[in-house]
Amino acid sequence: MNFSRKSLCSTQAQHRYVPPYERLLRRNQAWKPKKVKFEAELQAEYRQGTLTSFQQPQNYRCYYIHERTDILLIDELIDQAKITKHYSMDTEDDALTHKPATLQVEYIKQNLSSIIIIIEVQYLPSSASPLFKKIQQLCSIIFTSQNYIYSWGSALQELSKFQPFQLFNTNIAIIEKDIQYSYDPHEKQSLQMTIRYEFQEYLNKIATLAEWACGLDLMLGTYLPLDVVGRERPYRLHEEKKHRSILQEYAINDVFAVTKLAYKMNLIKFTTLPSTIQYEEISDDEDELQMQSELSINIEPQYEELIVHVTDELEENELLEQPNQQISIINSIKNFHNILEIDENYPANEHFELHYHNASSVPQNTLNIERNNDMDLQSLPKIMKLHYSHEPDHLSMPQHQTQQLSSRTVTVHVIDESQVSNLNHLGPTTETTSTLTLKQIRNQKI
Protein backbone atom coordinates (compact mmCIF):
# COMPACT_ATOMS: atom_id res chain seq x y z
CA MET A 1 0.00 0.00 0.00
CA ASN A 2 2.72 2.39 0.98
CA PHE A 3 4.76 1.28 -2.04
CA SER A 4 1.98 2.14 -4.44
CA ARG A 5 1.52 5.56 -2.87
CA LYS A 6 5.25 6.28 -3.25
CA SER A 7 5.07 5.20 -6.84
CA LEU A 8 2.20 7.55 -7.48
CA CYS A 9 4.07 10.48 -5.94
CA SER A 10 7.11 9.72 -8.07
CA THR A 11 4.98 9.75 -11.21
CA GLN A 12 3.44 13.08 -10.26
CA ALA A 13 6.87 14.58 -9.53
CA GLN A 14 8.19 13.32 -12.84
CA HIS A 15 5.43 15.12 -14.75
CA ARG A 16 5.48 18.31 -12.71
CA TYR A 17 5.18 21.37 -14.95
CA VAL A 18 8.36 23.45 -15.23
CA PRO A 19 7.84 26.87 -16.81
CA PRO A 20 9.83 27.41 -20.01
CA TYR A 21 11.74 30.39 -18.61
CA GLU A 22 12.88 28.35 -15.64
CA ARG A 23 14.00 25.61 -18.01
CA LEU A 24 15.98 28.23 -19.92
CA LEU A 25 17.79 29.44 -16.81
CA ARG A 26 18.69 25.90 -15.85
CA ARG A 27 20.00 25.21 -19.34
CA ASN A 28 22.14 28.36 -19.31
CA GLN A 29 23.65 27.40 -15.97
CA ALA A 30 24.42 23.88 -17.14
CA TRP A 31 25.69 24.71 -20.62
CA LYS A 32 27.16 28.22 -20.36
CA PRO A 33 28.13 28.97 -16.72
CA LYS A 34 30.63 31.67 -17.71
CA LYS A 35 28.02 33.36 -19.84
CA VAL A 36 25.61 33.30 -16.89
CA LYS A 37 28.20 35.00 -14.69
CA PHE A 38 28.92 37.71 -17.24
CA GLU A 39 25.18 38.31 -17.73
CA ALA A 40 24.82 38.80 -13.99
CA GLU A 41 27.58 41.43 -14.02
CA LEU A 42 25.84 43.39 -16.75
CA GLN A 43 22.56 43.23 -14.88
CA ALA A 44 24.31 44.61 -11.79
CA GLU A 45 25.63 47.55 -13.83
CA TYR A 46 22.12 48.13 -15.11
CA ARG A 47 20.67 48.20 -11.61
CA GLN A 48 23.40 50.60 -10.47
CA GLY A 49 22.59 52.96 -13.33
CA THR A 50 25.90 52.51 -15.14
CA LEU A 51 24.02 51.04 -18.10
CA THR A 52 20.57 51.73 -19.44
CA SER A 53 18.35 49.16 -21.08
CA PHE A 54 18.70 48.76 -24.84
CA GLN A 55 16.70 51.47 -26.58
CA GLN A 56 14.44 50.36 -29.42
CA PRO A 57 13.16 52.76 -32.07
CA GLN A 58 10.11 54.64 -30.89
CA ASN A 59 7.89 53.37 -33.68
CA TYR A 60 7.99 50.07 -35.49
CA ARG A 61 5.67 47.31 -36.65
CA CYS A 62 6.30 43.63 -36.04
CA TYR A 63 4.67 40.80 -38.01
CA TYR A 64 4.94 37.03 -37.73
CA ILE A 65 5.00 34.89 -40.85
CA HIS A 66 3.86 31.28 -40.69
CA GLU A 67 1.04 28.98 -41.78
CA ARG A 68 -1.67 31.15 -40.20
CA THR A 69 -0.55 34.51 -41.54
CA ASP A 70 -3.08 36.43 -43.63
CA ILE A 71 -2.05 36.33 -47.28
CA LEU A 72 -3.12 39.98 -47.68
CA LEU A 73 -0.51 40.93 -45.11
CA ILE A 74 2.13 39.16 -47.19
CA ASP A 75 1.01 41.20 -50.20
CA GLU A 76 1.51 44.40 -48.22
CA LEU A 77 4.96 43.28 -47.09
CA ILE A 78 5.85 42.45 -50.70
CA ASP A 79 4.85 45.96 -51.78
CA GLN A 80 7.04 47.44 -49.05
CA ALA A 81 9.94 45.15 -49.97
CA LYS A 82 9.83 46.35 -53.57
CA ILE A 83 10.68 49.88 -52.44
CA THR A 84 13.22 48.95 -49.75
CA LYS A 85 16.93 48.43 -50.39
CA HIS A 86 18.34 48.13 -46.86
CA TYR A 87 17.63 45.32 -44.38
CA SER A 88 19.05 44.01 -41.13
CA MET A 89 18.71 40.32 -40.30
CA ASP A 90 19.37 37.75 -37.62
CA THR A 91 18.49 34.09 -37.08
CA GLU A 92 17.83 31.82 -34.13
CA ASP A 93 18.25 28.05 -33.79
CA ASP A 94 16.31 25.89 -31.38
CA ALA A 95 18.55 24.93 -28.44
CA LEU A 96 17.13 21.40 -28.16
CA THR A 97 16.87 20.35 -31.80
CA HIS A 98 19.64 22.62 -33.16
CA LYS A 99 17.43 23.30 -36.18
CA PRO A 100 16.70 26.75 -37.64
CA ALA A 101 13.68 28.26 -35.93
CA THR A 102 13.32 31.94 -36.83
CA LEU A 103 14.54 34.39 -39.44
CA GLN A 104 14.18 38.01 -38.34
CA VAL A 105 14.37 40.82 -40.89
CA GLU A 106 14.08 44.56 -40.43
CA TYR A 107 13.03 46.83 -43.30
CA ILE A 108 15.26 49.88 -42.77
CA LYS A 109 13.30 52.99 -43.76
CA GLN A 110 14.64 56.50 -44.02
CA ASN A 111 12.56 58.80 -41.79
CA LEU A 112 9.82 56.15 -41.57
CA SER A 113 8.86 53.50 -39.05
CA SER A 114 10.73 50.24 -39.38
CA ILE A 115 9.03 46.96 -40.21
CA ILE A 116 10.13 43.76 -38.49
CA ILE A 117 9.14 40.33 -39.78
CA ILE A 118 9.77 37.12 -37.85
CA ILE A 119 9.52 34.06 -40.08
CA GLU A 120 8.87 30.92 -38.04
CA VAL A 121 10.24 28.33 -40.44
CA GLN A 122 9.07 25.33 -38.40
CA TYR A 123 5.48 26.45 -38.94
CA LEU A 124 5.44 27.28 -42.64
CA PRO A 125 2.44 26.28 -44.78
CA SER A 126 2.56 23.54 -47.38
CA SER A 127 4.94 24.34 -50.22
CA ALA A 128 2.07 23.83 -52.68
CA SER A 129 -0.19 26.41 -51.03
CA PRO A 130 -0.72 29.94 -52.39
CA LEU A 131 0.35 31.34 -49.03
CA PHE A 132 3.73 29.63 -49.25
CA LYS A 133 4.22 30.95 -52.79
CA LYS A 134 3.63 34.45 -51.47
CA ILE A 135 6.09 33.94 -48.60
CA GLN A 136 8.61 32.62 -51.10
CA GLN A 137 8.07 35.67 -53.30
CA LEU A 138 8.64 37.97 -50.33
CA CYS A 139 11.88 36.26 -49.30
CA SER A 140 13.09 36.21 -52.89
CA ILE A 141 12.58 39.96 -53.26
CA ILE A 142 14.52 40.61 -50.06
CA PHE A 143 17.37 38.15 -50.56
CA THR A 144 17.78 37.78 -54.33
CA SER A 145 17.53 41.39 -55.55
CA GLN A 146 20.99 42.74 -54.73
CA ASN A 147 19.71 44.50 -51.61
CA TYR A 148 21.97 45.60 -48.77
CA ILE A 149 21.79 43.09 -45.91
CA TYR A 150 23.33 44.09 -42.57
CA SER A 151 24.11 41.35 -40.06
CA TRP A 152 26.37 40.47 -37.13
CA GLY A 153 28.50 37.88 -38.85
CA SER A 154 28.12 36.51 -42.35
CA ALA A 155 24.58 36.84 -43.69
CA LEU A 156 25.27 34.32 -46.44
CA GLN A 157 26.38 31.75 -43.91
CA GLU A 158 23.28 32.32 -41.80
CA LEU A 159 20.93 32.15 -44.79
CA SER A 160 22.46 28.92 -46.06
CA LYS A 161 20.81 27.10 -43.16
CA PHE A 162 17.39 28.05 -44.56
CA GLN A 163 17.90 26.62 -48.05
CA PRO A 164 16.00 23.38 -47.21
CA PHE A 165 12.86 25.45 -46.57
CA GLN A 166 12.83 26.66 -50.20
CA LEU A 167 12.20 30.24 -49.16
CA PHE A 168 14.22 31.53 -52.11
CA ASN A 169 13.17 30.54 -55.62
CA THR A 170 16.59 31.53 -57.01
CA ASN A 171 20.11 31.73 -55.69
CA ILE A 172 20.72 34.23 -52.92
CA ALA A 173 22.04 37.51 -54.34
CA ILE A 174 22.70 40.21 -51.75
CA ILE A 175 25.19 42.95 -50.96
CA GLU A 176 26.49 41.58 -47.69
CA LYS A 177 27.43 44.00 -44.90
CA ASP A 178 29.05 42.11 -42.02
CA ILE A 179 28.91 44.63 -39.18
CA GLN A 180 30.99 42.42 -36.90
CA TYR A 181 33.84 42.32 -39.41
CA SER A 182 33.53 46.02 -40.25
CA TYR A 183 33.68 46.90 -36.56
CA ASP A 184 36.85 44.90 -35.89
CA PRO A 185 38.40 42.93 -38.77
CA HIS A 186 41.07 41.42 -36.53
CA GLU A 187 39.10 40.15 -33.54
CA LYS A 188 35.47 39.08 -33.34
CA GLN A 189 33.52 41.03 -30.76
CA SER A 190 30.21 40.00 -29.25
CA LEU A 191 27.16 42.06 -30.18
CA GLN A 192 26.29 42.49 -26.51
CA MET A 193 29.72 43.90 -25.59
CA THR A 194 29.79 46.20 -28.62
CA ILE A 195 26.42 47.71 -27.68
CA ARG A 196 27.65 48.14 -24.12
CA TYR A 197 30.79 49.95 -25.23
CA GLU A 198 29.27 52.12 -27.98
CA PHE A 199 25.97 53.09 -26.35
CA GLN A 200 26.33 52.18 -22.65
CA GLU A 201 23.24 50.02 -22.99
CA TYR A 202 22.43 46.55 -21.71
CA LEU A 203 21.38 44.13 -24.45
CA ASN A 204 19.81 41.13 -22.73
CA LYS A 205 21.13 37.84 -24.17
CA ILE A 206 19.68 35.38 -21.65
CA ALA A 207 17.45 33.72 -24.25
CA THR A 208 20.23 32.57 -26.58
CA LEU A 209 19.66 28.92 -25.59
CA ALA A 210 15.86 29.11 -25.65
CA GLU A 211 13.46 26.65 -27.27
CA TRP A 212 12.99 28.89 -30.29
CA ALA A 213 10.85 26.40 -32.19
CA CYS A 214 8.09 26.60 -29.58
CA GLY A 215 5.90 28.82 -31.77
CA LEU A 216 6.35 32.44 -30.72
CA ASP A 217 3.20 33.88 -32.22
CA LEU A 218 0.18 33.30 -30.00
CA MET A 219 -1.90 32.84 -33.16
CA LEU A 220 -0.27 29.44 -33.59
CA GLY A 221 -1.86 28.33 -30.31
CA THR A 222 1.18 26.39 -29.11
CA TYR A 223 1.04 28.13 -25.75
CA LEU A 224 -2.30 26.52 -24.88
CA PRO A 225 -1.92 23.66 -22.33
CA LEU A 226 -3.60 20.44 -23.41
CA ASP A 227 -5.91 18.62 -20.99
CA VAL A 228 -5.17 21.05 -18.16
CA VAL A 229 -8.04 22.46 -16.08
CA GLY A 230 -8.48 24.13 -12.72
CA ARG A 231 -6.06 26.58 -11.13
CA GLU A 232 -3.13 25.07 -13.00
CA ARG A 233 -4.42 26.23 -16.40
CA PRO A 234 -4.23 30.04 -15.93
CA TYR A 235 -0.80 29.67 -14.32
CA ARG A 236 0.53 27.77 -17.33
CA LEU A 237 -1.03 30.20 -19.75
CA HIS A 238 0.67 33.08 -17.98
CA GLU A 239 4.08 31.40 -17.99
CA GLU A 240 3.88 30.35 -21.64
CA LYS A 241 2.83 33.83 -22.78
CA LYS A 242 5.54 35.49 -20.68
CA HIS A 243 8.18 33.23 -22.18
CA ARG A 244 7.12 34.04 -25.75
CA SER A 245 7.10 37.73 -24.96
CA ILE A 246 10.71 37.48 -23.74
CA LEU A 247 11.75 35.65 -26.91
CA GLN A 248 10.04 38.20 -29.15
CA GLU A 249 11.82 41.06 -27.38
CA TYR A 250 15.14 39.25 -27.76
CA ALA A 251 14.62 38.57 -31.48
CA ILE A 252 13.61 42.16 -32.24
CA ASN A 253 16.44 43.71 -30.22
CA ASP A 254 19.07 41.66 -32.03
CA VAL A 255 18.18 43.11 -35.44
CA PHE A 256 17.70 46.60 -34.01
CA ALA A 257 21.17 46.37 -32.45
CA VAL A 258 22.69 45.56 -35.85
CA THR A 259 20.90 48.50 -37.47
CA LYS A 260 21.92 50.82 -34.64
CA LEU A 261 25.59 49.95 -35.10
CA ALA A 262 25.34 50.26 -38.89
CA TYR A 263 24.04 53.80 -38.48
CA LYS A 264 26.74 54.56 -35.93
CA MET A 265 29.41 53.37 -38.36
CA ASN A 266 27.82 55.35 -41.21
CA LEU A 267 27.39 52.23 -43.32
CA ILE A 268 23.78 52.81 -44.38
CA LYS A 269 23.65 55.08 -47.42
CA PHE A 270 20.22 56.01 -48.69
CA THR A 271 19.81 57.21 -52.25
CA THR A 272 18.48 60.76 -51.99
CA LEU A 273 16.87 62.87 -54.69
CA PRO A 274 18.45 66.23 -55.54
CA SER A 275 16.63 69.10 -53.87
CA THR A 276 16.78 71.41 -56.90
CA ILE A 277 16.78 71.12 -60.68
CA GLN A 278 19.72 72.50 -62.64
CA TYR A 279 18.73 74.67 -65.60
CA GLU A 280 20.73 76.29 -68.37
CA GLU A 281 21.01 80.05 -68.26
CA ILE A 282 18.19 81.88 -70.00
CA SER A 283 19.21 84.23 -72.78
CA ASP A 284 17.89 87.76 -73.16
CA ASP A 285 15.41 86.77 -75.83
CA GLU A 286 13.79 84.31 -73.44
CA ASP A 287 12.57 86.88 -70.96
CA GLU A 288 9.03 85.68 -71.51
CA LEU A 289 9.77 82.55 -69.45
CA GLN A 290 9.68 83.31 -65.74
CA MET A 291 10.89 80.80 -63.20
CA GLN A 292 8.49 80.81 -60.31
CA SER A 293 9.02 79.21 -56.91
CA GLU A 294 7.02 76.24 -58.12
CA LEU A 295 8.15 74.78 -61.45
CA SER A 296 5.65 75.40 -64.24
CA ILE A 297 6.17 73.95 -67.67
CA ASN A 298 3.96 74.48 -70.71
CA ILE A 299 4.04 71.24 -72.65
CA GLU A 300 2.73 71.24 -76.17
CA PRO A 301 0.98 68.10 -77.39
CA GLN A 302 2.17 66.49 -80.59
CA TYR A 303 -0.98 67.67 -82.25
CA GLU A 304 -4.14 69.43 -81.27
CA GLU A 305 -7.47 67.83 -82.01
CA LEU A 306 -9.67 70.65 -83.21
CA ILE A 307 -13.43 70.55 -82.96
CA VAL A 308 -15.20 72.40 -85.76
CA HIS A 309 -18.80 73.53 -85.20
CA VAL A 310 -21.15 74.89 -87.87
CA THR A 311 -23.55 77.48 -86.40
CA ASP A 312 -26.77 77.19 -88.41
CA GLU A 313 -28.39 74.65 -90.66
CA LEU A 314 -29.32 75.58 -94.19
CA GLU A 315 -30.65 73.67 -97.14
CA GLU A 316 -28.17 72.84 -99.88
CA ASN A 317 -29.92 75.03 -102.42
CA GLU A 318 -29.93 77.98 -100.05
CA LEU A 319 -26.23 77.58 -99.50
CA LEU A 320 -25.56 77.52 -103.22
CA GLU A 321 -27.14 80.95 -103.56
CA GLN A 322 -24.64 82.57 -101.19
CA PRO A 323 -22.18 84.66 -103.18
CA ASN A 324 -19.25 84.54 -100.83
CA GLN A 325 -19.12 82.22 -97.81
CA GLN A 326 -16.39 81.95 -95.22
CA ILE A 327 -15.25 79.36 -92.77
CA SER A 328 -13.35 80.83 -89.82
CA ILE A 329 -11.04 78.42 -88.07
CA ILE A 330 -9.81 79.84 -84.78
CA ASN A 331 -6.66 78.30 -83.49
CA SER A 332 -4.43 79.34 -80.62
CA ILE A 333 -1.07 80.78 -81.60
CA LYS A 334 1.78 78.90 -79.97
CA ASN A 335 5.21 80.25 -79.19
CA PHE A 336 7.90 77.68 -79.96
CA HIS A 337 10.91 79.91 -79.63
CA ASN A 338 11.39 79.22 -75.94
CA ILE A 339 12.67 75.78 -75.10
CA LEU A 340 13.11 74.65 -71.49
CA GLU A 341 15.82 72.02 -71.27
CA ILE A 342 15.68 69.66 -68.27
CA ASP A 343 18.41 67.28 -67.20
CA GLU A 344 17.39 63.84 -68.45
CA ASN A 345 19.13 62.21 -65.52
CA TYR A 346 16.82 63.83 -63.06
CA PRO A 347 14.67 61.18 -61.28
CA ALA A 348 11.46 60.37 -63.06
CA ASN A 349 9.41 60.43 -59.89
CA GLU A 350 10.04 64.15 -59.23
CA HIS A 351 6.70 65.95 -59.26
CA PHE A 352 6.11 68.69 -61.77
CA GLU A 353 3.08 70.93 -62.04
CA LEU A 354 2.01 71.35 -65.63
CA HIS A 355 -0.07 74.42 -66.50
CA TYR A 356 -2.10 74.35 -69.66
CA HIS A 357 -3.41 77.70 -70.94
CA ASN A 358 -6.89 78.09 -72.34
CA ALA A 359 -6.89 78.71 -76.06
CA SER A 360 -9.22 81.70 -75.66
CA SER A 361 -6.68 83.53 -73.48
CA VAL A 362 -4.08 83.93 -76.23
CA PRO A 363 -4.15 85.69 -79.61
CA GLN A 364 -5.85 83.69 -82.31
CA ASN A 365 -5.76 83.51 -86.08
CA THR A 366 -8.50 82.93 -88.63
CA LEU A 367 -8.40 81.10 -91.93
CA ASN A 368 -11.13 82.33 -94.31
CA ILE A 369 -12.08 79.96 -97.10
CA GLU A 370 -13.87 81.54 -100.03
CA ARG A 371 -16.30 79.66 -102.17
CA ASN A 372 -15.71 79.18 -105.89
CA ASN A 373 -17.47 77.29 -108.63
CA ASP A 374 -15.60 74.05 -107.87
CA MET A 375 -16.87 73.81 -104.32
CA ASP A 376 -18.15 70.41 -103.29
CA LEU A 377 -20.73 71.39 -100.67
CA GLN A 378 -21.53 67.80 -99.87
CA SER A 379 -18.10 67.50 -98.29
CA LEU A 380 -18.88 70.06 -95.59
CA PRO A 381 -19.64 68.13 -92.41
CA LYS A 382 -21.46 69.37 -89.36
CA ILE A 383 -18.45 68.62 -87.14
CA MET A 384 -14.94 68.39 -88.48
CA LYS A 385 -11.91 67.28 -86.52
CA LEU A 386 -8.72 68.95 -87.70
CA HIS A 387 -5.30 67.76 -86.57
CA TYR A 388 -3.00 70.75 -86.29
CA SER A 389 0.71 69.90 -86.41
CA HIS A 390 3.21 72.41 -85.13
CA GLU A 391 4.59 73.26 -88.52
CA PRO A 392 3.73 76.57 -90.21
CA ASP A 393 1.01 76.50 -92.84
CA HIS A 394 0.33 72.82 -92.50
CA LEU A 395 -3.22 71.72 -91.73
CA SER A 396 -4.88 68.31 -92.16
CA MET A 397 -8.58 67.42 -91.83
CA PRO A 398 -9.87 63.83 -91.44
CA GLN A 399 -13.21 62.96 -92.99
CA HIS A 400 -16.25 62.25 -90.81
CA GLN A 401 -19.53 60.61 -91.59
CA THR A 402 -21.97 63.33 -90.51
CA GLN A 403 -22.69 65.79 -93.31
CA GLN A 404 -24.69 68.99 -92.97
CA LEU A 405 -24.61 72.34 -94.64
CA SER A 406 -23.71 75.53 -92.84
CA SER A 407 -25.07 79.08 -92.60
CA ARG A 408 -24.23 82.02 -94.73
CA THR A 409 -21.21 82.80 -92.61
CA VAL A 410 -19.95 79.58 -91.15
CA THR A 411 -17.79 80.23 -88.09
CA VAL A 412 -15.63 77.39 -86.95
CA HIS A 413 -14.32 77.68 -83.40
CA VAL A 414 -11.35 75.64 -82.34
CA ILE A 415 -11.32 74.84 -78.64
CA ASP A 416 -10.27 72.04 -76.29
CA GLU A 417 -12.43 68.93 -76.57
CA SER A 418 -13.31 69.11 -72.88
CA GLN A 419 -15.04 72.46 -73.50
CA VAL A 420 -17.13 71.37 -76.47
CA SER A 421 -20.16 70.19 -74.51
CA ASN A 422 -20.35 73.45 -72.52
CA LEU A 423 -19.68 75.77 -75.45
CA ASN A 424 -22.22 78.63 -75.64
CA HIS A 425 -20.05 81.36 -77.09
CA LEU A 426 -16.49 82.30 -77.70
CA GLY A 427 -14.99 85.29 -75.97
CA PRO A 428 -13.41 88.16 -77.83
CA THR A 429 -10.46 87.11 -79.84
CA THR A 430 -7.82 88.78 -81.87
CA GLU A 431 -8.09 87.33 -85.34
CA THR A 432 -5.88 87.32 -88.39
CA THR A 433 -7.40 86.27 -91.70
CA SER A 434 -6.11 84.25 -94.59
CA THR A 435 -8.11 82.92 -97.53
CA LEU A 436 -8.40 79.34 -98.73
CA THR A 437 -10.86 77.84 -101.15
CA LEU A 438 -12.93 74.90 -100.11
CA LYS A 439 -11.24 72.88 -102.82
CA GLN A 440 -7.92 73.65 -101.19
CA ILE A 441 -9.19 72.34 -97.88
CA ARG A 442 -10.63 69.26 -99.59
CA ASN A 443 -7.24 68.57 -101.14
CA GLN A 444 -5.64 68.69 -97.71
CA LYS A 445 -7.90 66.02 -96.25
CA ILE A 446 -6.27 62.85 -94.91
Briefly, what is this?
With 446 residues, the chain is of the alpha/beta class.
Task: Walk me through the structure.
- The protein contains eleven helices and 17 strands.
- By secondary structure, it is an alpha/beta fold.
- The chain has a six-stranded mixed β-sheet, sandwiched between helices. Strands 16-11-13-17 form a four-stranded mixed β-sheet. It has a three-stranded antiparallel β-sheet with strand order 10-14-15, with no helix packed on it.
- The chain is globular.
How do the strands and helices of this protein lay out in sequence?
Blueprint: H1 2-14, H2 20-31, H3 33-48, E1 52-53, E2 60-65, H4 71-82, E3 86-93, E4 100-107, E5 114-120, H5 130-143, E6 147-151, H6 155-160, E7 174-178, H7 179-183, H8 191-199, E8 201-202, H9 232-264, E9 296-297, E10 303-309, H10 316-320, E11 326-332, E12 353-354, E13 364-370, E14 383-389, E15 395-396, E16 409-413, E17 433-437, H11 438-443
Parallel strand pairs: 1-8, 2-5, 3-6, 6-7, 9-12, 11-16, 13-17
Antiparallel strand pairs: 3-4, 4-5, 10-14, 11-13, 14-15
Helix pairs in contact: 2-3, 4-5
Question: Hey, roughly how much beta strand do the residues contain?
Answer: 15-25%
Number of E-type strands: 17
The CATH superfamily name of the largest domain is Ribonuclease H-like superfamily/Ribonuclease H
The major beta sheet can be summarized as: 6 strands, mixed
Radius of gyration: 38 Å
Q: What order do the helices and strands follow?
A: HHHEEHEEEHEHEHHEHEEHEEEEEEEH
Task: Give the strand line-up of the largest sheet.
Answer: 2-5-4-3-6-7
Structural class: alpha/beta
How many domain units? 2
CATH architecture designation of the largest domain: 2-Layer Sandwich
Query: How many DSSP helices?
Result: 11
CATH fold-level label of the largest domain = Nucleotidyltransferase, domain 5
Helix content: 25-40%
Mean pLDDT: 74
Assign the CATH class of the largest domain: Alpha Beta
What's the overall geometry? globular
Low-confidence runs (pLDDT<50, min 5 residues)? 1-13, 273-370, 379-414, 423-433
Distance between the termini: 114 Å
